Amino acid sequence: MESLGQLIRTLRKERKLSQQALAEQYGMSRATISGIENNTITEIGLRKVEAILNGFGYELSAVPRPRQRPTLESLKQAHFHD
After folding, report:
1. Could you write out the DSSP letters of every residue in 32-72?
2. The dihedral of CA 25, 3, 48, 39: what is its sign?
3. Residue 60 · residue 53 · CB < 8 Å
4. Which parts of the chain are coiled coil (predicted)?
5. Which of 3, 20, 21, 43 has its CA 20 to 30 A from that of 65?
6. What is the pLDDT of residues 20-60, one digit of tens each?
7. Which of 61, 74, 69, 56 is closest to 14 using CA atoms?
């Protein structure tokens, strides 16, 4: 979510919109927009974030991320299969 907030802030500033103007456009409070941009909001509906991104011409999607580290279980399996 942190990178989404940064993206929304960048897009908003590129279009010279205030947080208040963006909030009014989507029926949210300025505090909600600030929370999204600063990753300080505890919960935000995905539909709200998606609506903002769609308004900027972006699409919200999920992609698999590469595994960072092997899990303990995968290490055990690899060890016992050798």
Report:
1. HHHHHHHT--S---HHHHHHHHHHTT------PPPP-S--H
2. negative
3. yes
4. none
5. 43
6. 999 999 999 999 999 999 999 878 888 999 999 999 999 98
7. 56
Structure token digits, residue 2: 């942190």
Q: State residue 19's pLDDT score.
A: 97
Write down the CATH number for the domain with range 2-55. 1.10.260.40
Token pair of 34, please?
A: 């600030």
- Rounded to two decimals, the pTM is 0.70
Token pair in block for residue 26: 């989507």
Q: By C-alpha distance, which of 1, 10, 11 is closest to 40?
A: 1
Q: Give the pLDDT score at 81.
A: 60
Residue at 43: amino acid letter: E
